[in-house]
Structure formats: structure tokens, C-alpha cells
Amino acid sequence: MQESNLNLLEAFLDVMRVEQNLSKNTIESYRRDLLLLLGHFEKKGPGSWMKVGERHIREFLAAEFDRGQKARSSARRLTALRMLFRFLQKEHGLENDPTVHIELPKLSRSLPAYLNSGEVEALLQQPDLTTPLGRRDKAMLEMLYATGIRVSELVGLKIGDVHRDMGFLRVLGKGSKERLIPVGKSALKYLQEYLEVSRQILAKGRLSEALFLSKRGSGMTRQQFFLRLKAYAKAAGIKKDVSPHKLRHSFATHLLNNGADLRSVQAMLGHADLSTTQIYTHVTTERLKAIHKFHPRS
Question: Which residues are catalytic?
């Protein structure tokens, strides 16, 4: 690939990293998508970011469609491309944004999958509370379901982020935005047991700010927790594909099913846009429809 194109791409990603405070995963996603586009433009298009036109982009999207690419992936790539061209207009004198008249592909929003209350209860009963690892896992599962935080936020918690006396959690979410989330008595109880009985054993004399420690005394990783969760779901006999994000969906759905207001759930989930949270109202609507079938006149 041409050096000048790669230099412009890296300059753009540096700006996104610093000014937009995007996460490492988001930056890497942009890099992959834009490198794919760059490869196409250098092979079949104008060969330079500064010479890409609307026709070249439409040709790429058409080729993606013919290959069976999902609309969500095409929309993500077009979004990354739009941000790149705005950067080139602002910083490198690009006259026209070739994406301005191209609409994002329409996305069909699938309802989030979640566990019902019985499945959650079965999952929470799996950790062995006679072992340090079991007490840690119990505290992590209870905390995840009680707060709806992301798995990256869960493993990123520090001891000072939990205010047990006041019953809330301080979370640093996407874009380094801080939010406070209330924590229920059950989660606090098992967290207390983990801190008083197990954490010191797992630390093995090492100093760490991480709240949840691995058996080696370092902070838990997302992958480690994911594998533990999968094993517990299998032991609980849950047939669904269980993931940390599915527990987040369960948290939101169960709150709304039991009368929580949408704005409060939005704040706890850390959604910037209320429309993101509103998808959970569709879940509760579907549940109501399912219940209504028992009406004698249905």
C-alpha cells in the first residue's frame, strides 16, 4: 500500500484516539475497515484517499452486497469512511466529501437475547462458595447481573470503585465517562465475603488495585471470566448461548418488566442515546403479547 495513504490513515486514527477518546477496540476496528477500503481503492479505484469519489464508494458497497456482506458491516465501514473524509477536509484540504450523498444501509434491529429469571437464578447458584475462586466468581456474577455493567467495566473495577457503605458502584465506561450505579444487597453481600475471605488468598502477597483477581494474583481478564461463565452456564443446564452481554440484556429487561422507567435504565447502562435503551421496551412488548394469547378472546 502507498506510504502516503497509510500515513494519512494513521494520522486520522491518532486524532480519533486523542480528540474523540475512542477505545483501543474501536480504533482497531476503524483501522481494519479502512485498510480494507484502501486495498480496494488502490486496486480498482483512484489509488489515493484524496481522489476517491462517490462512484468508487458506491462500487465498493455494491461489491460488498454481491458478496453477501451484512448491512451492519457495510454501515460501520461507511461511517468510518465519513469520519476519515471529514478529517481530510479539515486537516488536508480535501474539497468535497464523497460520502455526503450516500445513505447508510437500513439496519433491522434484532431484539436482544436475554435469560429469564429462572435461568439467571440457576446460573448464580453454580459457583462453589467453599473455594476462593468460587466466592470470587459468585461476586462477579452477582455484580454483573445487579448492575448491568459491561464485562470490560467489570474486570476493570478497582477496590476504590465500590462504595459498600453507600451501596453504589463508580464505573468508568466508554469514552471515559463516569457513572454511578446502585448495587443491591445480594451482590454487596457476596462481594463482602469475597473481599474478607478470598481476595487476600488470591493476591498471594502481591499489591494490586484490581477488585477481582485471578488465581495468579493479577487482575481478571475478559477472556478468563468469559470461560468461567460458559462453564457455569453449561453446569446450570442452560441451552442458550450465554455471554456477559446477555446478562447485561437480562438486567435491563428484568428492570423494565418490573416497572423501572426507561431514563433510569439508560443512566445505569451508560447509553448516550435513549433510542439504544428503547430496544428493551420491544422485549417487554413481545412478552406482553405472549401473555395476552391466554385471553379468551385472543
Answer: 150, 174, 245, 248, 271, 280
Q: How confident is the model at residue 255 (pLDDT cuts 50, 70, 90)?
A: confident
What's the first-to-final CA gap in the chain, in angstroms? Answer: 63
Residue 296 has a CB neighbour count (10 Å cut-off) of 4
Between helices 244-257 and 222-235, what is the axis angle to 10°?
A: 70
Do 149 and 212 form a contact (C-beta atoms < 8 A)? no
- CATH number for 125: 1.10.443.10
Q: Is 176 exposed, middle or buried (0-12, 13-18, 19+ CB in 10 A)?
A: exposed
Residue 49 and residue 96 in contact, taking contact as beta carbons nearer than 8 Å: no
Over 80: is that where the pLDDT of 175 sits? no
**What total of structural domains would you count in the chain?**
2
Same domain, 193 and 131: yes
Q: Residue type at 251?
A: F
Q: Is 259 exposed, middle or buried (0-12, 13-18, 19+ CB in 10 A)?
A: exposed
73 with 127, same domain?
no
The burial of 64, by beta-carbon neighbours within 10 Å (0-12 exposed, 13-18 middle, 19 or more buried), is given as buried
d(CA 70, CA 64): 8
79 and 133 assigned to the same domain: no
pLDDT surpassing 80 at residue 297: no
Structural domain range at position 195 = 117-292
